[in-house]
Amino acid sequence: MATSPEEQAAAMIANMKEKTGKTLAQWISIAKKSGEEKHGGLVKHLKSEHGMTHGFANLVAHKTLKSDAGSAADAGADLVAAQYAGAKADLKPIYDAVIKAVETIGKDVEIAPKKTYVSLRRSKQFALVQPSTKTRVDLGINLKDEAASGRLEASGSFNAMVSHRIRLEKPGDVDKDVKAWLKKAYQQS
Q1: 132 pLDDT exceeds 90?
Q2: Which of 43, 75, 135, 184 is the most buried (most CB within 10 A)?
Q3: Contact 17, 49 (CB under 8 A)
Q4: For the whole model, what pTM was predicted?
Q5: Which alpha helices (DSSP H) does 104-150 contain, by range?
Q6: Which residues fall within 8 angstroms of residue 110, CB to CB, at 6 or more apart?
Q7: Which neighbouring-strand residues pair with 75?
Q8: What SS3 class is residue 100?
Q9: How many of the other CB atoms lie within 10 Å of CB of 120?
Q10: What is the distance between the alpha carbons of residues 62 and 67, in angstroms, rounded to a whole number?
Q11: Are the C-beta atoms of residues 137 and 98 closer than 8 Å to each other?
């Protein structure tokens, strides 16, 4: 029996044609043609116009609007791919080195891609990673009561959401100092 939300959704999708007469892809097509753009409106439409139960209508609405956890994760991967496309493609190994470092400091780190940067969060944002130029990734970190010194610059005009910036030009720049600053920012968040 499915226990996690992901397992429950997978079971519903597997049984959808038998229970509703149509596959998920067919229902998504119908949902898109409805003209509804909001979750609640789409659920209401599927229930009233097509006789779906709330559970199936809710699932189809999530999949159509790509607002479920699986679709959101796919969208996040697309945002990261877009950030490191074209002239900035050579910077992706730097991003990967930062993410690898962050994943070792805590299991509760949320990696939240945005359009131009990736937010690193715990209870609140403690860092962000941004491909700023064709040759550099900027790592913004929130460090309370830490004086800017050397590679650990004041954020200045870079980004108001962080207190410090570290310029990274190669994966090896994510060294023990950077890892220590990330860990400290994580612990303060």
Answers
A1: yes
A2: 43
A3: no
A4: 0.63
A5: none
A6: 119, 120, 121, 122
A7: none
A8: helix
A9: 26
A10: 5
A11: yes
